[in-house]
Each structure stands twice: as structure tokens, then as C-alpha cells.
């Protein structure tokens, strides 16, 4: 079918000279400058006409791969009543991230973050038997999350597009099959889009469920940190579980010594003091020998507040994102001065699990009555330099398992390049990426909360097991722009380019205009999507715009037309071919990816 | 391209035996029963897979006709910041109909009812010169209105789909051209969809602007009332302006007489009493000779309250929708007992504009100090029977222009079949319909509010003039279902049918299954969209479902296959053709609309 030729003289497209002030990433800068997207508010973007074309191509690839695994497309709305989200606890668990509103009658509604609840209900509504299963249904829809820090253009928006699909199976085996189908669909989708990816083990977060993996595209500006083991194992740092070292024989360690440590405001100054005054026989003390005890105020989802102390080696910081992931839906903030005032038993800067003459003081059942969780590296027999619970005093040789224990393990310390992989395959590599897809084995959480049961082969009601699978088309556009650009602008791969060919009429002479129009008409008739720069602009402006806009092929109809020749430029490689005008269409069609 | 054959054995589709409890209209009942849509909450619907196919076909027709008039598709989000809607006054003017919400920082947002403000801003952002104009841009997007009474399935939803386009022109002439283009696009769209329509003059309502027309599809259950004149003139009853009759010579009418009228609680009883005791010389008194004065409490958009009395002939009621349209964004409710208590000067049931011994009492500058507006039929010289402002008393021969005047005209009485057309062409016909499209000449309201100016030919900044044009694809689906069904179910026209051919495998014998599969495969390969009923169900169940689902062509592969024959049924006409199996594909392809 012949398409409509898009003429830049009338197209609703304006390129900008300046980068947007709030942009750091190239994708954000270029998509705005080239007129693909426009900011409407914090974390809110508009697709301008040329951008919508890219978005829809990406969406179509996703749709085709979902259909290929037997998914059925449908469409829910975004404005949803509260009750089902109350039943699943997400109404509470999502906290401030959920956009909530009331209708004119005062009834509670929300803007969908995802649709697990309503997909569960529609299946409950229509299905009764195991014979109806398995089922995969999906939609591609706007989603809403009131992000605390929307950023990076399309990468972290408050309103964004998501393909979310849901699988329904009678048993765990079935769920595995549905999950595997999605894995394959996502792999195919990312390959078709031209995006290299890493699949990483992930946390399920507020979604619930037992197993989940993220599809990450490695990228410097990415928000997700992940680790790669020599074995190929990869995990989101939130999902990584640090291997606990073996217990240590501490039989030779002397008793706890209380030492004076004035003027040691930092771990480094403390280490210097103990090395100077209490040198260790085998090797110098290091920051990793100190036990840092950090105090947090934890707020439960029901609003209850409590104190939590986290003990971890002094050379490590708490990774905020790992902490959030480990305790959500509860939230934690470091103790303020006011909080410390309410706990006079805590000597700020000198907190330790043990107190000479008292014994263990930290822990739910210990004298201070404060929950105490430790890093997985704090194992039996490890000896620590830690606070003495008195100002200007520390203790040496406080041994875990001998002098103190904990209420449990909390694995939230920062992960470092070179840390041992949990599978023992060697040192971890650290990388950053953007999450494009996320697949979850939800299990029965939503089906149980909402009563989705079907009759099994024996006529008994059983709860259905579910998976949920997200893929972000708008985020994929940003990542494509990030991966496919150079200093001159965007350089789309053909499968997602808004147009196949960008024709530049380089000159206002009648014969150039006519030749460019003729070429555009012939390509259009052949089903090639053409954008024609027919503006009354200098050739330099047109060339710069063509490079900024990033169509795979640029055809210049200009001065060389006098010799019967046009230039065909490959945007990605920069290669230029001079081609006789009459052969141009044939060559472009054979080279077209359509 | 070969499509995927949809098999009913696995398709996410269940037909229901019962009509939904809340449904009155056939379209609502059938779309739910046939599994096209599902209710999610009040005024909130989900497209199930088969329904989404119809919706997307309708959407595509609209898109193609918008592209044909040079519109550029883009896409705004639905979650919008308050400020631009504050500037246009719609934040206030939309009242309870606007869904409002706050983000985590307390900033105000709304869910878009339409996008005039943001389209204005994006053009302001990118355009500077008259040379950039004219421009038509559009999107197809969910819209949100917190309707007081959502009803009739897809006909009045709180979340619904709309194509809204916006035109930008340098002058009024340009606006007329853009408006006319949309008229043509809408006519083509409705013709392609197979919907007969009436274009009616309409009110602009909260949109503002000078001229607007609605595209209505006539339908008994429709919410819009409109009138048709013999001349072809048509108007929404809200937009109809009743012609004022000529003044009457009242020189022969005697002075006002106060009469005792106990026990006349109704207009009819009053008319009976005056006919009995004060007969009129020329003809009996009728209800149309009485002047009814109704008291309303009006609430302005800024919350200020005031009283309003509407004087209209006693044989007419106030049409609530006309009243709403006439005074919005203010709102009016009839006076309560408590309201009357605050206005002791008003003798409820006996209110009149004139009081013997006092003179005119109603009106902003008259003794009662209450704004008084009258029906257009209350013209100079008309004589009225009306209240005497004393309990149990009325007045005869109160003459407009002689005894009283008003603060103005308010044309909100019900319109009746047979009323004279405003263009003098004869009696009006009344009809009901559903609004599918609405086109507005907005003028400069939004451009002024938001500062959209461009440089004209003389380098002077001038304000752009705009149009806005809505079309409802989801509502169109409901109207199509309403127009194309019979007692057995839906009967889609081919251009919007979810599938072209519905193959019923009527019997579980291997040869029937195989033949049905073969037929489906061949049709699919030829690009015909097929739904194949391969379920293990009785043929009767399958036939009933095929008729309920409503594909244009039903092919029955059943017992007659033994004679080498299949049945091709036309769903709309009921015609049945027996066709040799080998010829079936050929015949179906040549009959296919694709």
C-alpha cells in the first residue's frame, strides 16, 4: 500500500539547537532535540508525531512476539477501583508510589501501576475448569507510578507505556512452561529490536512471588546495578545474596578489651589508633575488622515505628537500594538526632552489640531492646573492633557467637567489583543497566487474595498459579536511542526507524525539487516510508537535521544531479555512494528492510 | 500476510447465557453476553480480545480519515498538571466532572477530559510564524469524565476512548477551512463505518467557542434529543433557540384583576377554576395562558449563591438539560423549603412578577430583588394568569410590557414535537440520538488563555485561532452493535467485524474436524481473518454462539460434508448457500471484503 509522503515543510516537527536543561543522557537530549518527545510535566512526556512512529514500531514487535507464544491481546483501563488492590495489599504496599484519587461520590480509585488484580478477576469471571488453562493474556497500556525522582526522559517516567502479560496455570509445571515461553518471547523481542541484554536474577518486590528475572540492557546511565559472575550467573544487586563465609576458630582470641579511643570520628581514624596502640600480631587491623552499627527508624506499612540496628563491616556502606528492596513494604531512614534523644542507651558513634560488665546489649531480648541484624559476613568466630557503648571508647576482640549474637542476617551492604560470586565461580563484575523487561513467577498470591479457583480433574477446586511479565516499550525507545546514536544525532536501526529513507532536496532549483519529489513518489509507491526535506532551508541545515533525526538511509538530491547522480548515505556507517538517478529507486528498494 | 487462526477451544472468549443485570440497551446486553466487553467498575469497561479487534478496526478508519485531511498523529498522556487548565478556567468550569488528584508532593493533577490546553502549549512551544500554519494534529487516547450517572455500557463511560484533533490557523478563514475538512472527514468516517447520521447545531458548553456541530446517530436509547425541521435544519435541543413570537396588541386588555383561587394546587386546577369563574370571551383559558414562575438556587463557579426565577408558560416544564447547558458552568437546583424560608417575600405556589398596589416585584431592580428571566414566548402584549404573591390568590390579565418586564430571556422550556422551527420552515420533529462526533470552532479562547501567538506577514504577533474535534471510537462500537443486531445476536458489517469468517465444525468426527481445519488454513493463507469453533460442544451451542458473535459469514462444516458440501450463511440476511467443499474457499475469498 502506498504510504503518505511526509514533507518536512508541513510536518509537525521542529528540531532544537539546544539540549534540554534537565537532560544528562544522550537519549534524553537527542529525543528532545530531534523532536521525538516533549516534556509535559515532571516524569510526563508526549510523543510527537515522529516519535510516535518509533514507539508504535517497538510496540508492534512486542505484540507480534506475544501473539507468537499464544498470548491474547485485550485492554484494561487505567482508572481502577480500590477494592481488588486492597485485597492484594498493593493499595497499602505501594505507598506513595501509587497515584490515588476519589470520584465525585468519594469512592477510592487508583491509576494502575500494573493490572495483576484485574486480570485475575477477569479470569475468575470467565473460567471455571482446568480445561480452560493454560492461558496467556496481555495488554499494552499506560501505567502510572508516582516516582520520587522521575528522571532521564523516558527512562523513569510517572506515566509510561508497558506491555504486561499474565499467565494462568493449574500447577507449578504449567507456570514454568508459561514463564519459559515469555523468556523466549522477550529474547526474540530484544533481538529483533537490536538490543543486547543480560538476564539477571531479580527481587520480586511488592509484586510477591517466588522467582523473577530482569532483562537488562547494559548502559552507563542505567539505574540498575547488577553483578556478573565468571560462570555467567547474573543478578540485580538487590537480588544478590552474599555467600556467608565459613565459621572461624576463635579459640585463640583473648577476652574483650575496652580501649580508650578519643578523636576517632571515622573508621579510618579508629583503625589508625588501634594499629598504633593495639597492634595485631598476625597483620595490621583494617576497616574490615571493625563492626559498624547503624541505627534506622523503620516504619511498617501500617505506620508502626521501631528502631533497627544493622551491624556490618566498617569498610562497607549500606546500599540504600538493597535496603529498600530487603525490607519493603516497610521503609527505613537513618536515626535523626531527635530519634537518638529518645534512646539514651545508645551512645552515638560508639554503639556495639556487647558491653563490658553487662554482656550482649543489642537485640530484641537484650537489655537495650532493639532489633539487631548483621551482615552475612558476621559469622561465628569472627572478631571485631566495635563500639563500647560509652563515648570515646571502643572494644577489641568482640567475638560473634562468643560475646554476642544477632536477631538475624540482613544482606544490604554495598556490593563491590571483585566480591566473591555466590556460586563460587570467582570474583564478581559490577555493571549498570536499564531494566527493559521483568518476568515473575507470581505463584498463587493474587489468585488466593482474589479467590481465583478452578475445578481440577477430580472436580476439586484448586487455586490457579500465575505469572506476570512486563516489558517497557517507551523505555525501549530511550535505550535504542542510547545505543544507536553518535555525536551528530540519532542513527536508528531500520526495524524501528520512523522512516526508511530521508530525502534531502539540497537546493531550491526547480530540477532538484522535482527530482526529489519524483524519487519520493516512486519510493512511496514501492512501500518505502519516506520523509522528504522540501523546506526552503540551506543544505547545511538540512544535512544537520537529517543526521540528527537518524533515518537509516539519507538520499541527497543536490548539485550532482547535474551529472545525473544522487548521493545515498548510510547514516550508521557514514558510507556514501554516488548513484545514477535512474538507479536510485531500485537500489533503495533492494536495500530496504521492508 | 497469513494471520493466526483463532480457535475457540483456546481463545479467551466466553459467551454468557444471561443479560447483565444493569443493561437496558441491546448493544450493552449483546456486547457483554457475546464476550466483547466486561464491566470493571461504574462506567469502566474492559475490552476483551474479540472486542479489542472491533475497537481497533473502528480506530483505524478514524485514523485513516484524519490522515487523509493532513492530520498528524501524536500522543499525549492522560495525567496532566493543573496549571494550563487553571489558565483556561476548565479546572473550575468542569466542576465535579473532572477527576482531580495530587501527587506525592501535593501538586495538583487531573485526568484529561480532552487536551485543548496541551495541544495549544505544544504548538506554542514549536511554532513561531504564520508560515507554520495551518496545522491539524490529533491523538486517540483514553479520556476521563466523572459522570454523575454512567450508563448504557460503552455509551456513557467515565473512562473512554476519544480521537481528539485540533486545528491551528492564522485567521477565521483558515479556521473555516480546517473545520470543513473535519466535517468531511467525519462524514467519510461514518459512511465507512456504515452509520447513518444527522449533523446538528450544538452548544459549545464548557469548551467555549463560537460554532459547533454534533454528529448524531439516531437511536431510541440515545441520550441526546434533537429536532429536525422540514427544511433539513437540525439542532440539539440544548442548542435550539425558540423563535420569539411577534408582539401582541394588548390595548383591549383590561387591568390586572386579583382573584381568589383556593384549592388550585396544579396548573390544570387553576385553569379549570378561571374558566368556570372568569371565562374568557374569545376562547377558554388553557395552561398556555398561565405564567408559571419557578425559583432556582444558582451556584456560580466561584461558589456564590443567588436566587433566580424563571417565568414560562404553564403548559411547559423546564428541560433540565437545556437549563444546564444554558447556565453552565454555573449550576441550578430548585429552591428547597429551607431556601424559601430565607425569602419570606415569596409566596410559594403563588409567585408572580406583579403585585397589585405595588407594581412589578420580580427582577433585579424590583422590590423582591430577585433576578427574573422569562421564556422567549413571553413577549410584549402577552397577557397572563399568574400568581398574586399572596396565598390562595392569582391575577388575571397581567400583561408583559405593560405590567411587568424581565431581566432577560432564558430559553430552557421543553421542546415539543410540532413546535415551530426557528427557520420558519414548519413544525419540528423530535428525535433521540447518540453523539458520535462533535466539531467546534473554538476561536481564540485557548490561544489567548495560554498565549499562543505567531508572527503574521507584517511581523506582528497575532493570536492563533483554533478548532477542536472529537470522535468517540468506543461509543461508535456500541452504536454499531445497536444498529447491527437482531434477536439472535450481533451482525457486524464486514468493515468492523472482528473476523471475516466464522467456521463452525458441527460434529466431532475426524473428517469434519479435518475439513474445518483445512478450510481455516486455506482462508488464513489467503489473508481472511478466521475464527474456528473447534470446541467439543454440541452443534446447537456452536450455532447459537456463531449467531451471537456476529461474524458476517458463517461456514458450517457438518453432516452435509458426507455429500461434499458445506453451508455458507450470511449472518445479516440469513441466506444459506450449499457449496461444494472444494469451491468454498474460492467463493469466500471473492466474497471477502478484504
Give a description of the structure.
Chain A has three domains: 36-240 and 430-481, BirA Bifunctional Protein, domain 2 (2-Layer Sandwich), CATH 3.30.930.10; 257-399, YbaK/aminoacyl-tRNA synthetase-associated domain (YbaK protein); 499-591, Anticodon-binding domain (Rossmann fold), CATH 3.40.50. In chain A, helix 12 (510-525) runs parallel beside helix 14. Chain A is globular and about 100 Å long. In chain A, strand 12 and strand 13 form a beta hairpin. With 594 residues, chain A is α+β, with helices and mostly antiparallel strands. Chain A contains 14 helices and 33 strands. In chain A, strands 4, 8, 9, 10, 11, 12, 13, 23 and 26 form a nine-stranded mixed sheet that branches. In chain A, strands 1-30-29-31-32-33 form a six-stranded mixed sheet, sandwiched between helices. Chains A and B meet through strand 2, strand 3, helix 2, strand 4 and strand 5 of A and strand 2, strand 3, helix 2, strand 4 and strand 5 of B.
Amino acid at each position: 500500500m502506498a504510504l503518505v509522503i511526509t514533507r518536512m515543510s508541513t510536518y509537525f516537527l521542529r528540531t532544537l539547537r539546544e539540549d534540554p536543561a534537565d537532560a544528562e543522557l544522550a537519549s534524553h537530549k537527542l529525543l528532545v532535540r530531534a523532536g521525538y518527545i516533549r516534556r509535559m510535566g515532571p516524569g510526563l512526556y508526549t510523543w510527537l508525531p515522529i516519535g510516535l512512529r518509533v514507539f508504535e514500531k517497538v510496540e508492534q514487535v512486542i505484540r507480534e512476539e506475544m501473539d507468537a507464544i499464544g498470548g491474547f491481546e485485550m485492554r484494561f483501563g487505567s482508572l481502577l477501583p480500590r477494592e481488588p488492590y486492597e485485597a492484594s495489599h498493593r493499595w497499602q504496599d505501594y505507598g506513595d508510589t501509587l497515584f490515588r484519587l476519589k470520584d465525585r461520590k468519594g469512592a477510592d480509585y487508583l491509576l494502575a501501576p500494573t493490572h495483576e488484580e484485574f486480570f485475575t478477576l477477569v479470569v475468575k469471571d470467565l473460567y471455571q475448569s482446568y480445561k480452560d488453562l493454560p492461558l496467556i493474556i496481555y495488554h499494552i497500556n499506560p501505567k502510572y507510578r508516582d516516582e520520587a525522582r522521575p528522571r532521564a526522559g523516558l527512562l523513569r517516567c510517572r506515566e509510561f507505556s508497558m506491555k504486561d502479560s499474565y499467565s494462568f496455570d493449574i500447577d507449578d509445571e504449567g507456570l514454568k512452561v508459561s514463564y519459559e515461553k515469555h523468556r523466549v518471547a522477550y529474547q526474540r523481542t530484544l533481538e529483533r529490536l537490536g538490543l543486547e541484554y543480560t538476564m539477571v536474577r531479580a527481587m520480586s518486590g511488592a509484586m510477591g512471588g517466588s522467582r523473577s528475572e530482569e532483562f537488562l540492557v547494559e548502559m552507563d546511565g542505567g539505574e540498575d546495578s547488577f553483578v556478573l559472575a565468571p560462570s555467567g550467573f547474573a543478578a540485580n544487586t538487590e537480588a544478590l545474596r552474599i555467600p556467608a563465609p565459613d565459621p572461624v576458630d576463635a579459640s585463640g582470641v583473648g577476652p574483650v578489651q575496652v580501649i580508650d579511643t578519643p578523636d576517632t570520628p571515622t573508621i579510618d581514624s579508629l583503625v589508625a589508633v588501634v594499629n598504633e596502640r593495639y597492634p595485631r600480631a598476625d597483620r595490621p587491623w583494617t576497616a574490615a575488622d571493625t563492626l559498624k552499627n547503624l541505627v534506622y527508624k523503620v516504619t511498617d506499612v501500617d505506620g508502626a515505628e521501631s528502631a533497627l540496628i544493622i551491624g556490618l563491616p566498617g569498610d562497607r556502606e549500606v546500599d540504600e537500594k538493597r535496603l529498600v528492596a530487603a525490607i519493603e513494604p516497610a521503609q527505613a531512614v537513618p536515626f535523626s538526632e531527635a530519634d537518638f534523644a529518645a534512646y539514651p542507651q545508645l551512645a552515638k558513634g560508639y554503639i556495639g552489640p556487647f558491653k563490658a560488665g553487662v554482656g550482649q546489649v543489642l537485640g530484641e531480648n537484650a537489655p537495650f531492646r532493639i532489633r539487631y541484624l548483621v551482615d552475612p559476613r558476621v559469622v561465628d568466630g569472627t572478631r571485631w573492633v566495635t563500639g563500647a557503648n560509652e563515648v570515646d571508647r571502643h572494644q577489641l576482640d568482640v567475638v560473634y557467637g562468643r560475646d554476642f549474637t544477632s536477631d538475624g542476617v540482613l544482606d544490604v551492604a554495598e556490593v563491590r567489583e571483585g566480591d566473591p560470586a555466590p556460586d563460587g565461580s570467582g570474583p564478581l563484575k559490577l555493571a549498570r543497566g536499564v531494566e527493559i523487561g521483568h518476568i515473575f513467577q507470581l505463584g498463587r498470591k493474587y489468585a488466593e487474595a482474589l479467590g481465583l479457583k478452578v475445578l481440577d480433574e477430580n472436580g476439586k477446586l484448586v487455586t490457579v498459579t500465575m505469572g506476570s511479565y512486563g516489558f517497557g516499550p517507551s523505555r525501549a525507545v530511550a535505550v535504542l536511542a542510547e545505543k544507536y546514536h553518535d555525536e551528530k544525532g540519532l542513527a536508528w536501526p531500520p526495524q524501528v526507524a520512523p522512516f526508511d529513507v530521508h530525502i534531502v532536496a539540497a537546493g531550491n532549483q526547480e530540477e532538484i525539487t522535482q527530482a526529489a519529489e519524483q524519487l519520493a513518489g516512486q519510493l512511496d509507491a514501492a512501500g518505502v516510508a519516506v520523509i522528504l526535506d522540501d523546506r526552503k532551508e540551506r543544505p547545511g541545515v538540512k544535512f544537520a537535521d537529517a543526521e540528527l533525526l537518524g533515518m537509516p538511509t539519507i538520499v541527497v538530491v543536490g548539485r550532482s544531479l547535474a551529472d545525473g547522480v544522487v548521493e545515498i548515505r548510510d547514516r550508521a556507517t557514514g558510507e556514501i555512494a554516488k548513484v545514477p538517478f535512474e538507479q536510485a529507486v531500485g537500489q533503495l528498494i533492494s536495500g530496504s528492510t521492508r
